[in-house]
Write a structure and sequence with these properties.
This protein has twelve helices and ten strands. By secondary structure, the chain is an alpha/beta fold. Helix 2 runs antiparallel to helix 3, helix 4 packs parallel to helix 5 and helix 11 packs parallel to helix 12. It is elongated and about 90 Å long. The chain starts with a helix and ends with a helix. The structure holds phosphoenolpyruvate and manganese (II) ion. It comes from Caldifermentibacillus hisashii.
């Protein structure tokens, strides 16, 4: 074959490639239109029967030089890409997405706002243990002008033999201290049945990592008028996390704060691996404020300050950490809670760091 002939054939192949590309573009647009129709009618996007019919039609009409398996493989790739195209479109229309709502959602907690550009803190003990313990921590919070206090009354513990929390008694302690010192209470509720009761005591309902896909709980907190702090599941992808928030918003409650709290990886140097890049991703993909829990993500007191700085630098709206008057005797998470002097240093350092950021 002469050089000239080869160049001509290659030119033909290039032209055919361009034609295939144009057809793929055209096909993609039709697939998107089909996706819109399916969404309107609530039809499942993956339709294996339809895919089988399409493949049969292609193979019946095929008599080219490739094997049938190759043709099947090539078209399977095209079908897969089409499905992905429809899924991307679908995701962009979630209620929590930026596409649906370009402005930032600002969560209002008794007049304190989260998501308006001012970076805030939510601090408090891992678990409520007594009135005195909560009050001592609350007084320390007040010294820094903080208004958001956390504390667990229902503790989802790995072992059934570990301290499970004081339950309603704990909610009452939180409310009493908060009322005395004009603070707001953020606390975890673990069952749908307790949500109504909690409304009288709490200002923000926390849905914990272990319950991120407790869909009945998500639906219940979606149906009430109370802000919700939703934690990322232990091994949840960002997409699963966003969909969990969608459950809440679909119920009519748009007062949601997303909380990155570390995910499980092979790394054992920290309790979990803080996925810091989740913060800008969540802020880009959704209109919700994003918190970072530095205590449960690291599980290490010595890492609370550097990770909190990272959270502020990367644009988190809220930083969560745990404080206990005497962590050594705490009934949960004793290794990672700060004592009160450490908390003061932590806040002073972070406030100085915040100044440098602006
Ligand atoms: C908590 O914040 O008290 C807690 C248990 O955290 P997580 O659900 O992230 O483990
Ligand atoms: Mn804890």
């Amino acid at each position: 074959m002469s050089e000239n002939q080869l160049a001509k054939l290659r030119e033909q192949v290039d032209q055919i490639n361009l034609q295939i590309l144009e057809l793929l573009n055209e096909r993609g647009k039709i697939v998107q239109a089909i996706g819109e129709e399916k969404k309107k009618h609530g039809t499942n996007r993956f339709d294996p029967v339809r895919e089988r019919e399409s493949l049969d039609l292609l193979l019946k009409n095929y008599d080219g030089p490739y094997t049938e398996a190759t043709i099947k493989h090539l078209f399977k790739q095209i079908f897969k890409a089409s499905l992905e195209l429809q899924e991307i479109d679908y995701e962009r229309t979630l209620l929590v997405s930026r596409k649906a709502h370009p402005e930032n959602t600002v969560v209002n907690i008794n007049g304190e706002t989260v998501g308006d550009g001012v970076q805030r803190f939510v601090m408090g003990p891992c678990a409520v243990e007594s009135y005195e313990q909560v009050r001592e921590v609350a007084l320390a919070l007040k010294e820094h002008g903080l208004t958001l206090m956390r504390g667990g009354a229902y503790k989802p513990r790995t072992s059934p033999y570990d301290f499970q929390g004081l339950g309603v008694e704990g909610l009452k302690i939180l409310r009493q201290v908060a009322d005395e010192l004009e603070l707001s209470v953020i606390t975890e509720i673990v069952t749908p049945q307790d949500v109504e009761l909690a409304l009288d005591y709490v200002d923000v309902i926390q849905v914990g990592a272990r319950n991120m896909q407790n869909f009945e709980l998500l639906k219940t907190v979606g149906s009430v008028k109370k802000p919700v702090l939703l934690k990322r599941g232990l091994s949840a992808t960002i997409s699963e996390f966003i969909n969990a928030a969608e459950y809440i918003m679909a119920g009519g409650n748009d007062q949601i704060i997303l909380c990155e709290r570390g995910i499980r990886t092979y790394e054992r140097a920290t309790r979990n691996t803080l996925d810091i890049s989740a913060v800008p991703i969540l802020k880009k993909e959704t209109h919700l404020p994003v918190a970072v829990d530095v205590t449960h993500s690291t599980g290490r007191r010595d890492l609370l300050l550097p990770t909190a700085k990272a959270a502020l630098a990367i644009g988190a709206d809220l930083v969560m950490a745990e404080v206990h008057p005497d962590p050594a005797v705490a009934l949960s998470d004793s290794l990672q809670q700060m004592d009160i002097p450490q908390f003061h240093d932590f806040m002073n350092e972070l406030n100085a760091f915040k100044e440098r950021l602006v």
